[in-house]
Design brief:
The protein is 66% helix and 11% strand. A five-stranded mixed beta sheet has the order 5-6-7-9-8. Strands 2-1-4-3 form a four-stranded antiparallel beta sheet. It is of the alpha+beta class.
Length: 568
């Protein structure tokens, strides 16, 4: 961008500073000239006033001359005053011949008077000359006063004229251009750079207008560049928003459903967001190879841009973007395609992991079923097999009926036990959690037992909803079910309490009743339920403690650390 050039105004005849200085100098000159003229005229008027006084005193002395003719010493004052007047008006006598002639006439007349006397006719003539001398100086003083007034009026009107001309030129050459400059600056502040200042002005204002126009032009260019950048940024933000929108919709759709139709729909939306070319996915599976199909006329899009759908070491296919030769892929388009390929890879990998986890869960459930059957039903069937073999031998040896009957009773008891164990195992594997929480599942279990027995069971549950994993919740519910089942069948209790709380990061499950107590823990009736609870405690990496409840009944305490990784 071109940098504006600012010029420093020089001092010349058209400079505002020079013109202002000239006007100021003219005002000062007129003021000084008027002041000096006034002073000189005042001094001249004062001198004329002195001359009028002196000549007036001559006329007064002349009126006393007739009385002093017999005394020559009386004529001395007039002679002295006449000499003083001559010395005072010496310069005027040289300049003015009329005054010189008049004063010479007075001196001649005075010479005759002082020599031959002062007759009446000559007295009148002498007085007239003195009056004419006084009148001369009065008239001269009046002329000087008129000249002084004329000079004052001329100076006043000159100042008015110069002031008017100065104000007119100031408005025309300074105020109006300056107002135009201010208007252009205000318009530029509002973003309107089309207004231009008049560069024909003289002096600094013309240079200032030129600089302002150049600066306005540069600002217009800069403003346009900023608008272009903002427009480009807005386009990038809109593209980013569209990309994020398609990625969000894709992630949301893939988290719910990953069918071929859904993938085809997402690819079509991706193609629309790219705004050019054709997009399809080549997946590494037998059911579908292309989503959606490639255009029949492949010459329309000769260029291919592949984006692998990989997750770690797993490859699920390739996302392909077909374009024309004229199209140059933009960075945001490539980033969107890469992000979509990674999103597809994450979805396929999640589906792959879910299938693997499902198979693993099936294997784990089978192992649990095999373990439960081995620990309970398999042992009972082995015992039955041994008793049947014994019965065959007894029948073959034709033993006495009491011996055979005892063996048959053993087989019957073992069969009953096996049937009970089978029902316990079935009940265990039918056990499920409610959708709400483990607390509601325990409450439902207690309500079901209370409907079948007179035992009043209270629940005190103090865990957060996220304290246990689903596997831990299954084991916990199974332990409580077995314990309450024993209370219902064997304790003869009227009340029981189930308390679940956490202390020092250890889960505590306490089941207490006020029944007759456990008695022999290895009794045949309660053996299988207790073994199930012990097995569940081991699965939780915890301990199960069975003790007497004071003052009566039984207390079962299960403790385990929920942070340990437990499995079914």
């Amino acid at each position: 961008m071109k940098k504006p050039i600012y010029k420093t105004p020089g001092i010349n005849n058209s400079s505002l500073v020079t013109r202002f200085s000239q006007v100021l100098a003219l005002f000062i000159t007129l003021s000084i000239a008027g002041l000096l003229t006034f002073i000189l005229m005042s001094e001249s008027i004062n001198a004329n006033a002195g001359k009028i006084n002196l000549t007036g005193s001559l006329r007064m002395l002349a009126s006393n001359i007739p009385h002093a003719q017999q005394k020559p010493q009386a004529l001395a004052p007039f002679q002295q005053r006449l000499s003083l007047v001559r010395s005072t008006i010496q310069l005027d006598l040289k300049k003015d011949p009329v005054l010189n002639q008049l004063f010479d006439s007075i001196e001649v007349t005075w010479e005759e008077i002082s020599t031959h006397g002062y007759p009446l006719k000559q007295q009148r003539h002498f007085n007239n000359d003195l009056d004419r001398l006084v009148t001369y100086f009065q008239h001269k003083t009046e002329q000087q006063i008129k000249q002084l007034r004329l000079i004052q009026f001329l100076g006043f009107f000159s100042i008015l004229l110069i002031s008017y001309i100065s104000i007119y030129r100031l408005k025309r050459r300074f105020i109006s251009p300056f107002q135009q400059l201010v208007s252009v600056a205000n318009e530029a502040g509002k973003g309107n750079f089309t207004a231009k200042a008049d560069e024909t002005g003289i002096g600094e204002l013309g240079q200032l207008a030129q600089s302002l126009n150049e600066m306005s032009q540069q600002l217009s260019i800069t403003y346009q560049e900023f608008e272009n950048k903002v427009s480009l940024k807005n386009q990038l933000l809109e593209q980013t928003n569209r990309s994020l929108n398609i990625l969000y919709r894709s992630a949301d759709s893939l988290s719910v459903e990953r069918s071929d139709d859904k993938l085809s729909e997402l690819i079509l939306q991706l193609e629309s967001a790219l705004g050019a070319g054709h997009v399809y996915a080549r997946l590494d599976k037998k059911e579908t190879s292309l989503l959606p199909c490639i255009p029949r006329d492949s010459s329309i899009f000769p260029l291919s841009h592949p984006y692998p759908i990989n997750k770690g070491s797993l490859s699920f296919g390739t996302l392909v973007w077909l374009t024309t030769k004229q199209l140059t892929p933009q960075p945001w388009q490539q980033e969107l395609l890469s992000a979509m390929a990674n999103l597809f890879a994450s979805a396929f990998d999640s589906e792959h992991k879910q299938q693997a986890e499902g198979r693993l869960q099936i294997l784990e459930e089978r192992a649990v079923i095999a373990r439960e059957l081995h620990d309970s039903l398999a042992q009972s069937l082995s015992y039955l097999k041994f008793q049947v073999s014994l019965l065959k031998k007894q029948l073959g040896n034709q033993l006495a009926a009491p011996n055979v009957t005892a063996t048959i009773n053993e087989i019957s008891d073992a069969t009953n036990t096996s049937y009970k164990q089978l029902r316990e195992v079935l009940t265990t594997f039918r056990l499920k959690l409610d959708n709400d929480s483990i607390q509601s599942s325990i409450r439902t279990l207690i309500d079901q037992i209370c409907l079948k027995s007179p035992v009043q069971i209270n629940l005190d549950y103090k865990l957060r909803e996220d304290s246990l994993t689903p596997n831990q919740e299954i084991h916990l519910l199974q332990v409580i079910r077995e314990a309450l089942s024993n209370v219902q069948k064997h304790s003869n209790a009227s009340q029981a309490t189930v308390t679940v709380f956490i202390k020092n990061n250890i889960i505590n499950v306490k089941i207490c009743d006020n029944g007759c107590g456990l008695g022999d823990p290895h009794a045949k009736e309660g053996h299988f339920g207790l073994s199930i609870m012990q097995e569940r405690a081991r699965s939780l990496s915890g301990t199960l403690d069975i003790s007497a409840n004071i003052p009566s009944g039984t207390k079962i305490l299960l403790t385990f650390n929920p942070s340990l990784n437990n499995t079914l």
